[in-house]
Amino acid sequence: DTAMRVTLDVLSALEPRTADASANLLALWGALNFEAAYTAARAGEEGHAWRYWDRADRVAQRLPEDFFQTQTSFSRAIMGAHAVTIAVELQKPGEAVRQAGRFDPARIPSRPRRARHLIEVARGHYGKGDNEAAVVTLRQAYDSAPETIRFNGYARQITLALLGGRAVRKDVHDLALKVGLAS
């Protein structure tokens, strides 16, 4: 509740300045709209989550096509990744995978941010019970930014769960080695 209240207060304070705002200020405002979506999704408030995602997407469409704000990763390109995150947090793995299919992760210029997105996609696959796709996607995340996957709790949790399965496949063991979860 506090996180949402603070986010909405800042959004309200910034909104009057967005009519003729610079791309940087618009991106900050868009990122805050996404944070409101993320907070609502974590609280299980699906309608609010998608409403704030829609607002963030409208802000992103006002930005130049190639604009990418380094601090927040906010841009037109990131909105597909944000849709995956919202669906995963709403515990809708099928929707997360569907959203992921509509978005090319190569559009994300930041390799660590791309890896975070791929971890979210892996969460969707894992949530659907598609362990093979989860492993493949985690490997892609590792290839994009090894440090990101090594220290991401969700990636480690999925890898450990797959490592602890009855029939541990070689690719799961290799991933666990790379992430530092097996020897």
Explain what this protein looks like in three dimensions.
The protein is mostly helical and 183 residues long. It has 10 helices and no strands. It has helices at residues 2-14, 23-42, 46-61, 79-89, 93-101, 111-127, 131-144, 146-150, 153-163, 170-179. Helix 7 (131-144) crosses helix 9 (153-163) and helix 9 (153-163) packs antiparallel against helix 10. The model has no long low-confidence stretch (mean pLDDT 94).
Summarize the structure.
This protein is mostly helical and 183 residues long. The chain has helices at 2-14, 23-42, 46-61, 79-89, 93-101, 111-127, 131-144, 146-150, 153-163, 170-179.
Q: Main β-sheet: number of strands, strand sense, barrel status? A: none
Structural class: mainly alpha
As residue ranges, the low-confidence spans are: none
Helix content estimate: 55-70%
Number of strands: 0
* % residues in beta strands: under 5%
For the terminal residues, how far apart are their CA atoms? 42 Å
State Rg: 17 Å
Individual helix count? 10
Average pLDDT taken over every residue:
94
Order of helices and strands: HHHHHHHHHH
What is the overall shape? elongated
Key words describing this protein structure:
single chain; 183 residues; mainly alpha; 69% helix; elongated
